[in-house]
Amino acid sequence: MKVGIVTIYDLTNYGNRLQNYATVNYLRRHGIEADTLVVRERSLAGDLKNVYHRFLGGSSYVPWDLKQETAEYAESLRPLLRARYDRFLAFSRKYTYIRHVSYRKEMRGSLNRSYDYFIAGSDQLWNPDMGHAQPPQFLAFAEPRKCLSWAASFGVDEVRYRRDEVVRGLKHIPVISVREESAKKIVRDLAGKDAEVLIDPTLMLGPDAWDEIASLPEGVDPDTPYLLTYFIGGRSAETDERIREIANENGLAVRHLLSEDEPELYAADPGEFAGLIKHASLIMTDSFHASVFSILYGRPFLVFRREGFGGELMGRIGTLLKTFHLEDRYAGSGVPDRIMTCDFAEAHSILARQREKTDAFLNRALRTDVFQ
Questions:
Q1: pTM of structure
Q2: Which residues lie below 8 Å from residue 363, measured CB to CB, with a gap of 6+?
């Protein structure tokens, strides 16, 4: 069996690259050939942009997914960001089986014949607020009987833009699974269809499987206890003060994953992201996937509301913590004396059942019995 995966292709985001790796890796571990399809959408708007650019003597318009891989883009990056970019690109090319395709009418023929099934997801593939939820991301090029979604996410509680396109896309896919309860409601409200809520693909691989790529950046000693921070939305002064207090009280060094003051961490590749969480004494974060890997590796963690955002972007973390009965991992949950300890026995028991649920879904959707 051969499967084509359509997901977000982002060479700057750890969670995106790790969920893409997990999806491909999990399928291939079960004997299914899987590729990541990086789709260039051919549209009238894109054609007009190319005409405009050529008229001005500039280069052709290139969509973001493909622009990331151009030499011009790489050369525009400052040195430290270039080092990070190079490592993300190398990781993606090595582990996610990238195939570039153009979104034209011909795709309905040649590409459709090349694969037995197409999977949309995971990540915020259907988030119109981020410019996603495009026809290729709803597998519009493929026969409906070959289409399914795996833990796809809207990333919002309500679809405010391109509702008609989203409705058409959802109706095109006969078998839908999503990552959050809020997404299940969106599918039901907009398309009148039932969607199954499944865990993120990163949770389908156990620690032993992640250890195959997990490592530590140069200069990080696993024998020196450290508190790891990973804040996508930045840290408030109040959060910084709490980090210092907890680190001092517990004799921990502080390592900031997104700080340019720590270049070896700033340039860490996705495998090193997993390794840093594996060896951390405590993780403080506003990230969904940092929370995921904390659960996988059984590491104490605290989740903070992302700065500058409302509750919508926290929906996926809320579903995650509720699913695994880990609501006390919210910062300010009232359990400060248990910050450095966390009993994951119940969470890992729930995880085993959630994996069985996903395996059953994949067996049904792909008409196979290899997932068990």
A1: 0.92
A2: 369, 370, 371, 372
